[in-house]
Design goal:
177 residues, 6 helices, 7 strands
Length: 177
């Protein structure tokens, strides 16, 4: 009976640890490889994590990120993370990751789904997690690339002296709808 009680306690404790992040929670620092195999960390400087767990969510973020570069995201401390563990490995290696390599910004990939298991998500939506020193300040779930883009632009630049320009009005007009 003691073993059963201990097992039940561990299961309940494990379930509690797996709860999705909510406003006020502290996000664990993590390091993931991007679509090119380079390691990137989500550290205390991260202000916004763009997160997708579905094709629809990744399509929203891909459209929102149109004309953004690694430098323009870095200026605002924005990181893009994709949980791709549900995509069959053969499809992932043969098609998905090679297509991601065309992006002008890093996409941090969780291929097992464990490191990002606490990131909340809604069906067919992108998740935007606003952070301040690892603490979740706000969560936004959206199926609108325009709303995602506005949220990204609302994050203040960290490097005011950098000459790198963010997307201009012409780029905005050319963004996919």
């Amino acid at each position: 009976m003691k073993a059963f009680t201990l097992l039940l306690g561990l299961l309940v404790a494990g379930g509690a640890a797996a709860e999705p992040y909510a406003v006020g929670d502290s996000v664990e620092p993590l390091t993931l490889k991007d679509q090119h195999g380079d390691e990137h960390a989500i550290d205390a400087s991260a202000r916004l994590v763009l997160f997708s767990r579905s094709k629809a969510g990744s399509d929203v973020l891909k459209s929102a990120l149109h004309r953004w570069t690694e430098d323009s995201l870095a200026q605002r401390n924005i990181v893009y993370v994709a949980d791709i563990h549900t995509i069959p490995a053969l499809i992932r290696r043969g098609f998905v990751i090679p297509a991601m390599r065309k992006a002008s910004y890093p996409i941090l990939l969780d291929k097992e789904g464990e490191l990002t298991s606490r990131f909340p998500s809604e069906k067919d939506e992108a998740t935007l997690v606003f952070l301040d020193n690892f603490q979740v300040e706000r969560l936004l779930f959206t199926s609108s690339w325009e709303e995602a883009r506005q949220a990204m632009e609302s994050v203040p630049e960290a490097k005011a002296d950098s000459p790198e320009a963010l997307p201009d009005a012409e780029a905005e007009a050319a963004a996919p709808s």
